[in-house]
Amino acid sequence: MTGDNDMRKDDLKEGDALALGQQLCFAVYSVAHAFNRTYKPLLDKFGLTYPQYLVLLALWQQDRMTVKGIGEALGLDSGTLSPLLKRLETAGFVSRIRDKSDERQVIVTLTQKGAGLKAEAFGILTEIGKAMGCSMAEAAALRSALHDLNHQLGENQQS
Amino acid sequence: MTGDNDMRKDDLKEGDALALGQQLCFAVYSVAHAFNRTYKPLLDKFGLTYPQYLVLLALWQQDRMTVKGIGEALGLDSGTLSPLLKRLETAGFVSRIRDKSDERQVIVTLTQKGAGLKAEAFGILTEIGKAMGCSMAEAAALRSALHDLNHQLGENQQS
DNA sequence: CATTATTTAATTGTACGCAATATAATTTTG
DNA sequence: CAAAATTATATTGCGTACAATTAAATAATG
Predict the structure, then answer these.
(1) Which of A:101-130 have CB within 8 Å of B?
(2) Closest nucleotide to A76's CA, by C1' atom?
(3) How far is A62 from chain B (nearest CA, A)?
(4) How much is the pTM?
(5) Residues B124-143: tens digit of each pLDDT
(6) For the segment B51-78, what is each residue's pLDDT rounded down to a tens digit?
(7) Interface pTM, i.e. ipTM
(8) What are the chain B neighbours of A140 within 8 Å (beta carbons)?
(9) CB count in 10 Å sphere of residue A43
(10) Domains and CATH numbers, chain A
């Protein structure tokens, strides 16, 4: 480290561009993991994973969705959802029934157990709110910025 | 809005506040996937996955790290890193050598191929910058907010 | 200095996430 | 109406993530 490196602060700008701490994507990646770790103990009580919880959230908002509908709501494809829904079915939270009027489709429906979980899972909301420990305005601004970024990144996808 | 106390709006706001953390989490989750999709075609050219690219970013910043060191930098454990590093070694980007002075440790070192890739990676930055379609200032602000959130979520973890 | 405890990687098992493919049902079309 | 194209879901294969376990090396302890 002696002598062979005369780099001064001014020269470091380009080198720093590739630094981990500078990467927005890494910040997002890290927070996603942090959220996952925060949710895990809360969801473990119900035997749910975070993606499974997302599916239930979607169904609590609107029951009787097709696999495709859930996929569009969550940004997941059948390769992810088919086995996930099978596990949710095995666990007794949802049932999957072929649509009689279009047998290609599978209608995913909440069971009583799945529907009943909504009330119990309400406590998760408050726990997550507490864990974030930031103001509503901050959270709302961040959500909005991420929403824009998500849309922007999606735009560049279809090329 | 301040000081105006409209009963209905208050109810709505309370519901929003409760759900905000959850929505923020989903926004982060979605953007993480969106970034992954944006990076994929860029990294495919080099035969890299995004987590593998993260490891190289860490090594470009500081070469000769232990598995544990890389894990701390990226928030990953040996269960993820061991097979990943094996693939990076097979692909010729890094080499793994047992530390002679402490044979428990494995020192991960960039090969010439791995080190040489850094120059080409600047092109990825430009592409990502374009895809994000926001100013440096915006990106920096978002990164800073995510950094804070990550720290905050981490605080609540240690119980 | 031998035993125990801790540390570091690797391994095993489960669950995403996604590309590519397969399969069956429905539409489109010629 | 029959052949081709499209659509919806499921399956396969690969690469993360992460908990739990294992194995080997080092450190701490009596």
Answers:
(1) 124-126, 128-130
(2) C17
(3) 16
(4) 0.89
(5) 999 999 999 888 899 999 99
(6) 999 999 999 999 999 999 999 999 999 9
(7) 0.88
(8) 20
(9) 17
(10) 49-122 (1.10.10.10)
